[in-house]
Amino acid sequence: MASRLLHRHIREQLKDLKEVTHESLVVGAIENAFQLMDEQMARERRGHQVEGGCCALVVVYLLGKVYVANAGDSRAIIVRNGEIIPMSREFTPETERQRLQLLGFLKPELLGSEFTHLEFPRRVLPKELGQRTLYRDQNMTGWAYKKIELEDLRFPLVCGEGKKARVMATIGVTRGLGDHNLKVCNSTLPIKPFLSCFPEVRVYDLTQYEHCPDDVLVLGTDGLWDVTTDCEVAATVDRVLSAYEPNDHSRYTALAQALVLGARGTPRDRGWRLPNNKLGSGDDISVFIIPLGGPGSYS
C-alpha cells in the first residue's frame, strides 16, 4: 500500500507549495505526507481488516536537490568518486532509546504494569531488591547507580542489543507506517504509540558537485545492510559499473542485482553462505540504484 500510494501523498503536498523558497518547505511536505499515509492506513485497516506495517525509504528530486526520507531501518548512501556519503540512519530501539523512554516517562499508562521506562545492563532479579545497580533513564547517555525497587522488576521498555533489540519485547524498529493494531504478545498494550511515522529527511545539493556516471545513490532494506558494509557496497559499485560503458543504463540494474545476490549468498552447507562463510541475509533484500550523473540522470 505504501509503495503504491506514498508518492501520491508526497506529490499532493508539494503541489500545495505556491512558492518553494526554502528546502524546509519541501522537508515539511514530505513529513506531512508520511503522516497522511499512516492515517490512511489506519482508516482502511478498520474497513478491510488489513494488518501489518512497513518501513519506508523515499527519494524526492526537486530543484537541483535530492531529499531522502527514512522511517525505519533501511539505509541510503551516496557513492561519489569512491567517497561514501550517508543519507539516512536506521531507527531502532537502540538508536531511539531516549525518545522511547521519554514517552514512557511522560505517559506511564502506555507501559501498563508490565514495563519500566528505565534501562538496566541486564534484567533485574527479585532477590536483588534493595541492592544498587546501574541504570539510565530518558535524560541520560551515561550510567548511574540506583537502589532497586519493586517497579524495577518490570520488563524494560527497550531490551536486547543490536538486531535483537526490541520495543516492549515485540518489534525491532521504531519508525514506520501502519502497525496500528500491533499489541504486546499476550497483552492488550498497543505498540503503536512508540512507533513514529515521521521520517528523518536529509538533503543533498546536486549543484554543488560535478557528478560522473559512476556516482550513485544506493537504497537498500536492512536485508542488505545486515551483512554488507558501506565500504563493501562502494567496492561493488566500482567493480560492477567499471565493467560497463558509461552510457549503458543496464549497468545500474546489474549493480542492484549484484548487491542483492551478494547479500543473499549461495546455497552451501545446508544454508546460504557469503564468501567469508558467514550466513547470508535471511531478511528481505531490496535495492534501488539511482544514478546522479551522466546522460538520463534525474529523468
From TrEMBL:
It comes from the Eukaryota. One of its GO terms (molecular function) is [pyruvate dehydrogenase (acetyl-transferring)]-phosphatase activity. InterPro entries: PP2C, PPM-type-like_dom_sf, PPM-type_phosphatase-like_dom. It comes from Callithrix jacchus (White-tufted-ear marmoset). CDD domains: PP2Cc (cd00143). It holds the Pfam family PP2C. One of its GO terms (cellular component) is mitochondrion. Residues 1-292 form the PPM-type phosphatase domain. This is Protein phosphatase, Mg2+/Mn2+ dependent 1J.
